[in-house]
Amino acid sequence: WQEWPFDTPYLKNLVRNPDAESGDMAGWTVTETHGEGWTPTLEDDVWTFHTSVDGFNRRTQEIDLVALGFSRQELDDAPPILVSEHFAMLEEPGLLQFTVELFDQDHNRLATRTTDGTDDLGQPTYARDSTSTFDTVKHLFDNYGTGLQFVTITDGGQGVALDHAVVVVTPVNLLHDPADQTSWQALEGTGNYSVH
């Protein structure tokens, strides 16, 4: 039986200011701006980031997993990392970029995931013609090798609302072989199981 250390940063959103809840761009580095650029917006008690319709806008955030309390050994186990972000087009067609990269301690790239497509400037984007409803881009990183230390989100767009950027490190499955039920023990009369 293994106990789970709940005081670790596992299963927590590691993105600073993912919903514009600070009312500004705290936690983010704006790398490209056009027109009105980035606008934290409060509508119906919900904060979102809006990008200008006058050109492509981009921002980035680097997350140092070691500084947040993960050990190098934990990271060398290549724990699954879930990344996602909600978006809605404010203009038809709106453009979205969502790129997440995993780097080692020397900033060598281990893995990358980006939205598909490009705009006329060759920027990676996701274009959608419908507006006002939120959709989600997401990806699960696994089997990316050893040496992980940094996760970098680069996102942005033109005429798009962004909300709830997420980077969550999930623990490596504690079950050595979840399909092998010989390691499971039924607890009498409870309908519950424990792992030994």
Short description:
The protein has 196 residues and is mostly beta strands.
Account of the protein in words:
This protein has 196 residues and is mostly beta strands. 3% of the residues lie in helices and 44% in strands. The protein contains one helix and 13 strands; from the N terminus they run E-E-E-E-H-E-E-E-E-E-E-E-E-E. The protein has one helix at 72-76; strands at residues 29-32, 38-43, 46-51, 57-64, 81-89, 94-104, 109-114, 126-128, 135-141, 148-158, 160-169, 184-186, 193-195. The strands form three sheets. Strands 1, 4, 6, 7, 8 and 10 form a six-stranded antiparallel beta sheet that branches. A five-stranded antiparallel beta sheet has the order 2-3-11-5-9, with no helix packed on it. Strands 12-13 form a two-stranded antiparallel sheet. The chain is elongated and about 50 Å long. The N and C termini lie close together (5 Å).
**What oligomeric state do these chains adopt?**
single chain
The tally of strands reads 13
* Largest β-sheet summary: 6 strands, antiparallel
> Which sequence of SSEs, written as H and E, runs from N to C?
EEEEHEEEEEEEEE
What's the overall geometry? elongated
The low-confidence runs, each spanning 5 or more residues with pLDDT under 50, are 192-196
Number of helices: 1
The proportion of residues forming helix, as a percent range, comes to under 10%
End-to-end Cα distance, whole Å, is 5 Å
Percentage beta strand = 35-45%
Over the alpha carbons, how many angstroms does the gyration radius reach?
20 Å
- Report the mean per-residue pLDDT as an integer: 84
Structural class per helix/strand content?
A: mainly beta
